[in-house]
Amino acid sequence: MKELKIIESMALYSAGRGAVTALVACMTAYLQAGNSRAVMDLFDSYLNELDESRGHPLPSDAPPAEHQGEEEVEDFTPEPSSDASPKVSAHNTLLLALITAFAIDNAFHAALRAYLQFPRQLPRGLVKQFLSQFPDSSLRSTVESFVQRLHVVRYLSQPRLLTHRTSLLASNLDDTGLQKLYNQIVDGLRGEEAYITVHPAELTERTPVAVGEIHWAAFLTAFLKCNRRDLGVSLWNDMSKFGVKPTAISWTALLDAYDRMKTPEDAEKAWNVMIAQGTEPSAMTYRAVISAFFNAHEPVDAIRYFQLFQQWVSNGREVDEEDYIAVYNTVLHGLLINGRSEDAHALLQRLREKGPKPDIVSFNTILQYHGRRGEFRHVSRVLDQMSEDGLTGDVYTFSTVLSSLLKIGRTDATDLILNLMRKQSIEPNAAVFSAIIDHQVREGTEQGLNAGMELLRRMERSPEARPNDVTYTGILAGLHRQQWANATFAHECKRYILGRMKERGIRLNRTVYHILLKACLENPAPEGVQEAMGYYEEMVKKKVSLNYDTWYVLLRGVIGREAWDVADELVRDLKRQMTPRGSLENLVSRVRKRTAWKRRLGPNVYF
């Protein structure tokens, strides 16, 4: 017994300084013997040791990249900011051992209280590897259930984590992953084991996290972005079932979704129900319904709602200044896309005279409209108005003006833009140049590409604004992303960029390859897939590590193109390297089932 205590003391001393192998072994032995109390005591002692040993680390005995790179795209979420972090940070494996100890006692809420001191994502590979030491399948299942629920707690305890996660899943059209996460949260609201509440003001030790209005809105937005109205209806019913009355936040999310879906009739119905239920709209709710009608090219109804907004404000409502001008910017944009430029100019002038004061977005909206038409007289007038109002242009302003100058055939367009920037006391640097070049290339015109390449050569000659890897990568991605009318010129530009990167010693790393792969697969032309596979083969040849993100970008891209032969080849390569899980596993399943991905996207994908 005495020897055991000495071993534990040595293990604790080492663990407090970063070398955890011995302490993990001690905890594992206790867990295998079913002694949960001993593990909890060791963890408490470990935390004390961490406090005492700050600033005196030992060389870590953990592998330098322990379980890194294995997390799926679905699991990527930013960590909480440093000011929200605990004073000490427990090692993942030791935290998992503690959770296992609570699982032995079937004490989820105790595990929850401990976990909230160190909320973080526990990698699936780590959980699987750790649990492989325990033959009891019931214990393994309980621990996995605990970990799954604890991850849900982490998302809810940091609202931005959940909104990021739902947004990512929706961007990937992963309605299966969304539904799974949503069901986990709803399950946490039910029964004796409930650990989530729907009322933030009623947090308790047993229900320390709440599903807030922003969470419901995030899921609603994500479901409708995936064209899953059925899940949106189910969510709305769940809110009613749990006694949650939708506020302006949820109604705004719903109206924004109808705007994206181009269904203003649904937006009107939703608005009427909201008013009938006595819910007070916000400025952003008005913005959403106005936008829905403008984008559906029904300006008369949009203006009707805008007039309701003005009346609402005149009745003494206090409106945040940013939200206030956002509504007016939506109206400016809506008037322009519906061919009512004179009304837009009149509104801008009224804002300048009576407020709310127009911001840079207001002016850029007008600039873009006239710039695309090559109406430089109007562009010049708007620039004068900006100057009169004391506003300085941004990257978008200068790029829009550059495009306008090119459209009217000014060969000195680049010089004029640089002079305009200097006149506004903006010294062009690498970041400004890179952003303008990216904007020009994204326009997809030969004029824009020419202007972008000219700016690049100027950067290469300038000691103050030399191009960097971001500059070259942005141009290369823009070249791959589109089908160019002058394919020969685009190919010459690609060769030039790759050659300059090689000369400057800029190597393509995994992150850059991901950007290029995604850009190639967004190109609707057949060579898009070919160029993507060329980069993939280059990665393999150069022994660039392919992680979950790599495979996800590749598979999602080729499925979107319904390039099934290529998808089959990639799945075979993937399975030789790793076992797909989560969203990646869903993509593999779609390849097997030959899911018609474009059918899920709806008719808009073809236009």
Condensed summary:
The chain has 31 helices and 2 strands. It has 607 residues and is mainly α.
Summarize the SSE layout with pairings:
Blueprint: H1 2-15, H2 21-32, H3 36-52, H4 92-104, H5 108-115, H6 124-131, H7 137-157, H8 159-171, H9 175-187, E1 196-197, E2 209-210, H10 213-225, H11 229-241, H12 248-260, H13 264-276, H14 283-295, H15 299-314, H16 321-337, H17 341-354, H18 360-372, H19 376-388, H20 395-407, H21 413-423, H22 430-442, H23 446-461, H24 469-481, H25 487-503, H26 510-522, H27 526-541, H28 548-560, H29 564-577, H30 582-593, H31 597-601
Parallel strand pairs: 1-2
Helix pairs in contact: 1-2, 1-3, 2-3, 2-4, 3-4, 4-5, 4-7, 7-8, 8-10, 10-11, 10-12, 12-13, 12-14, 14-15, 14-16, 15-16, 16-17, 16-18, 18-19, 18-20, 20-21, 20-22, 22-23, 22-24, 24-25, 24-26, 26-27, 26-28, 28-29, 28-30
